[in-house]
Write a structure and sequence with these properties.
Order of helices and strands: HHHHHHH
Distance between the termini: 27 Å
Helix content: 55-70%
Radius of gyration: 25 Å
Amino acid sequence: MGHGYDLEPGSPDFRKVAREFAKATQQRLEIQRRRDEGEFVESLLAPKVEAESASSVLPAGLSMPSLGDVVSHFLDNYDKTAAMFKKHQAALGLFLEFIGNVPVSDIRQIDIDNYFAMLCRLPPRWPDEVRRKGISAKKLAEQDHEVTLSPKTFEYSYMASIRPFLAAAIE
């Protein structure tokens, strides 16, 4: 009942769930006992459950928003007079350029990690270099640079923009 299932006590479904729960609890207690005795015990694998596609959880008639839509929404609803607004514009613009305007359901943690890795290879004042050389920031990051963005710039500009953006995007 605590998980939202209302099974009639004594029904065949209730008995089946109770048996499976008791078996799982017994297995878990046995593993814990063996571990407490110092034995190495592999963790049980959770049963595979077919994941719902991202589009199946949306209400009918709605489509998955693109990264560009989510970035625009975040910036449109952000205080334009705040000191961080310009940093958000730059960091999220580069994020969108790097990832592409894909459906947000297609973005994975590795994409975000690769964005951060690319940032760490950019030189200071990279937008000037991009304009001067006529290449993308991604191409610029592939080149070797004697000096790259400082950890402080990375943390207080880029990470400070991506964190609130991702938090807002989840909501």
